[in-house]
Amino acid sequence: MGNISREDWCEWDMISRPYSNLQHCLEKLAEIFKQGFPNPWAEQIIFQSHQMYFANCSLERRPLFFDPPEEVLLALIIAPICLIPFLVTLVVWRSKDSEVQT
Question: pTM for this one?
Answer without folding.
Answer: 0.52
